[in-house]
Amino acid sequence: MAQLDTAETGARDAGGGRRRVRDIRDWSELKRRLTDPGPWRRGLIPAVLTVLLGLVMLFHARIPNRVGSLGSLTETFLPWLGLLLVPLAAAAVLRRSASATAALLLPVFVWFNLFGGLLTDKSSPAHDLTVLSHNVAEENLDHDRTSRALTDSGADIIALQEITRANRADYERGLAATYPYHQVMGTVGIWSKLPLSGTKPVDIELGWTRALRTTVATADGPLAVYTAHLPSVRVKVNAGFTAQRRDRSAHALGEAIKAEPLDRVLLLGDLNGAMNDRALANITSQLRSAQGAAGDGFGFSFPAGFPMARIDQIMVRGLEPTSSWVLPQTGSDHRPVAAAMAF
């Protein structure tokens, strides 16, 4: 009897043990499901941030400029928002989040739609005219080095900004042998291998001359050439992106170009704004960017040591850009930008 009781007790204990094991397993499965909501519910924060990034890039033109010119600031550095995709993608992988991974499709698509065309080389060797624009910088004291870089570029037309009483004579002397024709007004000037005529200042509502217009006599007919140095912008903690003066001057420059009677127009200058910046709309709506049409890459020109934005522009109407590039540093805080054109 004792042995039977023991056997029966053992059987009962074994059954209870199996039930406890099943209970533990059921509890562990429930706990796992509660603590691990699955790939689509994991990583919701990175997913939301990724969608917000895509919406900022998609609707950048809707970001208001009323407070600190936030819209213009965003548009100036819009290409760099793509770098935020790297940590967001890493977060999606580390969290094994299907939702965060799927959310990446929006900003990736928008970024490539905006800038993917700049990543391919669209240049061709054919050209009739080569032009260059450079803000030589008032603080740049190496005028001879800068002049050599400009003449070595082979450009037919050169536009300079930030010409001062201290550097004007040096640039006139350094460029004279290669460029027999030149005109300087205020702080801007044009040097050319081709004859110039009809040069006049352009009023961009600053009270002094920082823009001019001239006619270049080419073998294919007259070409209206403008150069301008729009007011600088600053990023201030208490004021945001201070660009109001630049915006007014950009509008005035656009009005001058709108009144231009010649069909062929070339604008060379430091516009202190990127092509995406809505403040330049009165200009960009009339002219094409040489870098956008025929460049290879973003063509960033400022600051020279580590360029982060293209604020030095070459823009055209009635000409076909065939290539566009950025030259090495010269001693200025801007890099020269150049382009080749076909008539």
TrEMBL record:
Spans through the membrane: 43-61, 73-94, 100-119
A GO molecular-function descriptor: metal ion binding
Pfam families: Exo_endo_phos
Keywords per UniProt: DNA damage, DNA repair, Hydrolase, Magnesium, Membrane, Metal-binding, Nuclease, Transmembrane, Transmembrane helix
Swiss-Prot/TrEMBL cofactor(s): Mn(2+); Mg(2+)
Residues annotated as domain Endonuclease/exonuclease/phosphatase: 112-334
Protein's GO biological process: DNA repair
Protein name stated in the entry: Endonuclease/exonuclease/phosphatase domain-containing protein
Phylogenetic classification of the source organism: Bacteria, Bacillati, Actinomycetota, Actinomycetes, Kitasatosporales
InterPro entries attached to this UniProt entry: Endo/exonu/phosph_ase_sf, Endo/exonuclease/phosphatase, TDP2-like
Organism from which the protein derives: Streptomyces smaragdinus
